[in-house]
Amino acid sequence: MLGSPEFPLLSKKGDVTIGGTFSIHSQISKPPLAFRDTPEPLMCSGLNFRELRFAETMIFAIEEINNSSYLLPNISVGYKIFDSCGSTLPSTHAAMGLMNGQERTVRKTCSSQSSVHAIIGASESSSTIVMLQLFVFHFATCACLSNRNEYPSFFRTIPSDYYQSRALAKLVKHFDWTWVGTVRSDNDYGNSGMATFIAAAIQEGVCIEYSEAISRTDSSEHIARVVQVIRTGSARVLVAFLAQSEMDILLEEVLNQNLTGLQWVGSESWVTAGYFASKRYSGILTGTLGFSIRRTKITGLQEFLLQVNPTQDPQNNLLREFWEATFGCKFQSSLHGETQCTGSERLQEINNPFTDVSQLRISNNVYKAVYAVAYAMHNMLNCGQNGEVVNQSCIWKEHFESKQVVKHLQGVNFTLQSGERVYFDVNGDPAAVYELVNWQRNEAGDIVIVGIGSYNASQQNGKQLTIRWTKRRPQSVCSESCLPGFRQAVIKGKPICCFSCVACAAGEISNSSNSAECSRCPLEYWPNEDHSQCVPKVIEFLSYEETMGALLTSFSLFGASLTLVVSCVFFRFRHTPLVKASNSELSFLLLFSLTLCFLCSLTFLGQPTKWSCMLRHTSFGIAFALCMSCILAKTSAVVIAFKARRPANTVPQCSHLLQRTSVLSCTLLQALVCLLWLNLAPPFPYKNAAHATERIILECDLGSTIGFWAVLGYIGLLAALCFILAFPARKLPDNFNEAKFITFSMLIFCAVWIAFIPAYVSSPGKFTVAVEIFAMLASSFGLLFCIFAPKCYILLLKPERNTKKYMMGRNQSESI
């Protein structure tokens, strides 16, 4: 059965008239256009039970107001309801019919009005936009309608898509769906809503793989192409910002191509439509998420709907069409076998979108819109403020215009019987509060729409979205998440959600998944094995327990022990000519200093402390200075003994005094340098984290490099003097020429310490200490063997040479 959008389908006279436009039919005829004939009137078909329920809800609210004793108490409210057919052109016809009505009503105390005073708007944004003179809309969500410059008389009882789109973006981000596809209605509702969603999604770090648009007038080839794009895409989440008519077309093609496995995220226009929850689409839409208007109950509405019957107005074609579509019968049956409608059929036995009041969401918006207009008129006619009766009757105003209602509509603020508060902001929008719904299967296998959360735009950011859902959720990402220890690397030419995972570099970590970059660990920390957290570096120093430390300790103790053995040998043969000729006093002092040189290397091992750092360098400096002073004195004695022209009995006395003085003064000078070093800038323990990777080298900072090199340089100076004095005396005519051995020992000593300098500077970490100890031991062993080995050889193995005569012999071929 067909209806025309040019004439009201339902109407009733009253002192004031509220108009309404609903998409009562979903299809529109396309009459042929010719320039020779008058165009045929537009005809609509395909009854929409849900939209008819909206229209009946408007009538129900008006009847409640007419029966109210506190709201418009002496004013009757009438209505005119037109069919917009869900299309722009019929909406224009309906708007013209509402604004140019010719019907008049007469009351005893009031003059009549011909036009509609307020209109409850169409169910789609695009249909709404053509009605610039309309007031309150129940299902027009386009954010563009909040522009007061273009639509100064626009109000609505449903939140703007600006908030819904942002809520959908936060929902997608909440579930970590960073790779989604989108499809929208190719009209103001879909284009505006999707544009806001994409902008908000990008801010949330969500990438859009594809964005397609469809219209109910598109060809089947275009719809098939869109579904093929969805099928071939890698995104597993599809955000569908569609009106019901486009959603119906899309789902049919999805069924044809057997496309499953998608997580649907829907807009409020279809996400609570029971029609889509039927078994036909259940395999596709199970698990659907989306935001809807809050569900509520309207007391008495179900009873009112069940009383609808063609017998109420036998001439009303819409009621007859509804009855025939509901019960599958005909009032005027022309075909054999068709069931005859009697009007006595019972709606109580029918369960369809018209009688189903379990999901009263948009119906409640219609209900609120009617009451908002009634309260505005109530205030305008001085009946009272927001329903509070001041006078027994309202003060009627002749020929009041619709724009007067607008002024009072902005200030309405009332509470419904359900407890819901109704008001409008400066843009004519209500509070943006949504219910998050999920399509789940019950025990019987049917799809039920369950509330699992909410979104309240008035809350502060971070508290707007609340979700009560613990079920496993699908993944929809362009690239798998990067584990801790890796960072995202953008792939050239791809969106930011498509990336490769690159391991963090040495010294860097990432302690969360999908880190954009790795962070460097603090100086005293190092990444663990998987680079997911910083752990304290291992503190390392040259200890006695490790292999190198144990070897150096062994050599040090061996050297000291060997020196003590040599001392014992010398003490055993202290009265022999060889020991006397070697200046036994200086020899024992030299052996004592060599023992100290071997033992002071032990202070360089173990964990550095304040006192050990000061001790190791001062003991090293003084011990080696004492050693060099003794050798210098011995060399001087040899040179003096052979060069002197004085009587023999005067040389030793002068020589011993000179030796003691030189040893004491040279050693005291080194001790003074060490004392100044310790007072001005002493060595101290230092954690060297810069020269290592996963380890901290605990070492002794020199405090003053000048002090260190002064000590080392002074030892080098004494060694150089020894060499200078000993080198000319190496060829003196004596069977036992000690200067020759001192020269050789100084060559070894200087070679060791000259090689020490570059090795010390270039060695990393604890090896610096090992190089220093090695130089000390090598030079000490060199002195011990070069100076004392030949003497021990004679004392222990060649006692026949240990005579004064042999030692004083000249020009003999054998020499040691």
From TrEMBL:
<keyword id="KW-1133">Transmembrane helix</keyword>
<feature type="transmembrane region" description="Helical">
    <location>
        <begin position="773"/>
        <end position="797"/>
    </location>
</feature>
<dbReference type="InterPro" id="IPR000068">
    <property type="entry name" value="GPCR_3_Ca_sens_rcpt-rel"/>
</dbReference>
<dbReference type="GO" id="GO:0005886">
    <property type="term" value="C:plasma membrane"/>
</dbReference>
<comment type="similarity">
    <text>Belongs to the G-protein coupled receptor 3 family.</text>
</comment>
<keyword id="KW-0297">G-protein coupled receptor</keyword>
<feature type="transmembrane region" description="Helical">
    <location>
        <begin position="618"/>
        <end position="642"/>
    </location>
</feature>
<keyword id="KW-1003">Cell membrane</keyword>
<dbReference type="Pfam" id="PF07562">
    <property type="entry name" value="NCD3G"/>
</dbReference>
<dbReference type="Pfam" id="PF01094">
    <property type="entry name" value="ANF_receptor"/>
</dbReference>
<dbReference type="InterPro" id="IPR001828">
    <property type="entry name" value="ANF_lig-bd_rcpt"/>
</dbReference>
<dbReference type="InterPro" id="IPR000337">
    <property type="entry name" value="GPCR_3"/>
</dbReference>
<dbReference type="InterPro" id="IPR004073">
    <property type="entry name" value="GPCR_3_vmron_rcpt_2"/>
</dbReference>
<dbReference type="InterPro" id="IPR038550">
    <property type="entry name" value="GPCR_3_9-Cys_sf"/>
</dbReference>
<feature type="transmembrane region" description="Helical">
    <location>
        <begin position="741"/>
        <end position="761"/>
    </location>
</feature>
<keyword id="KW-0732">Signal</keyword>
<dbReference type="InterPro" id="IPR017978">
    <property type="entry name" value="GPCR_3_C"/>
</dbReference>
<feature type="transmembrane region" description="Helical">
    <location>
        <begin position="548"/>
        <end position="573"/>
    </location>
</feature>
<dbReference type="Pfam" id="PF00003">
    <property type="entry name" value="7tm_3"/>
</dbReference>
<feature type="transmembrane region" description="Helical">
    <location>
        <begin position="585"/>
        <end position="606"/>
    </location>
</feature>
<feature type="transmembrane region" description="Helical">
    <location>
        <begin position="663"/>
        <end position="686"/>
    </location>
</feature>
<feature type="domain" description="G-protein coupled receptors family 3 profile">
    <location>
        <begin position="548"/>
        <end position="811"/>
    </location>
</feature>
<dbReference type="InterPro" id="IPR011500">
    <property type="entry name" value="GPCR_3_9-Cys_dom"/>
</dbReference>
<dbReference type="GO" id="GO:0004930">
    <property type="term" value="F:G protein-coupled receptor activity"/>
</dbReference>
<feature type="transmembrane region" description="Helical">
    <location>
        <begin position="706"/>
        <end position="729"/>
    </location>
</feature>
<keyword id="KW-0675">Receptor</keyword>
<keyword id="KW-0472">Membrane</keyword>
<keyword id="KW-0325">Glycoprotein</keyword>
<dbReference type="InterPro" id="IPR028082">
    <property type="entry name" value="Peripla_BP_I"/>
</dbReference>
<keyword id="KW-0812">Transmembrane</keyword>
<protein>
    <recommendedName>
        <fullName>G-protein coupled receptors family 3 profile domain-containing protein</fullName>
    </recommendedName>
</protein>
<keyword id="KW-0807">Transducer</keyword>
<dbReference type="InterPro" id="IPR017979">
    <property type="entry name" value="GPCR_3_CS"/>
</dbReference>
